[in-house]
Specification:
SsrA-bd_prot_CS; SsrA-binding protein; SsrA-bd_prot; alpha+beta; two-stranded antiparallel ribbon; 7-stranded antiparallel sheet; SmpB; about 35% strand
């Protein structure tokens, strides 16, 4: 039987600011109160990014609000968190990131069974005209859908 996947947070800004070339899944090293806080949906990926340093992958800027009932066990909400991936996958990503214009961006946080997972995207930054173009395409699609819906009535 497949494990249940429950999405907790999604980084909409990443899809606006970057072209997502490839997606990866990584586990996160968390404290118990952080997991409880994520379960309640108190996580923000807005300005987060990933770094590879000394062969270790970590996410920076990810905000997990302190758990209300966590008292002394709460950790710093913005602390760097280690991501868990196979060594060869990390080294392959490191080689891709070394190419200019590529970065690793967290796309979403979700539960896969009892474990918290992070979806990463190998991303290339969009220029301003690319953002305008994708917004225009989205608006045109919305207009076409509206026209089709009104025509089918």
């Amino acid at each position: 039987m497949a494990e249940a996947v429950k999405q907790v947070a999604r980084n909409q800004k990443a899809y606006h600011d970057y072209f997502i070339e490839e997606k990866f899944e990584a586990g996160i090293e968390l404290a118990g109160t952080e997991v409880k806080s994520i379960r309640m949906g108190n996580v923000n990926l807005k300005d987060s990014f990933c770094l590879i340093k000394d062969g270790q992958l970590s996410v920076l800027g990810m905000h997990i609000s302190p758990y209300e009932k966590g008292n002394i066990f709460n950790k710093d909400p913005r602390r760097p968190r280690r991501l868990l991936m196979h060594k060869r996958e990390i080294m392959r990503l490191f080689a891709r990131i070394k190419q200019d214009g590529y970065s690793l961006i967290p796309l979403s946080v979700y539960f896969k069974g009892p474990r918290v997972k992070l979806s990463l995207g190998l991303a290339r930054g969009k220029k301003l005209y690319d953002k305008r173009e994708s917004a225009a395409k989205r608006d045109a699609k919305r207009e076409m859908d509206r026209a089709m819906k009104s025509r089918n009535r």
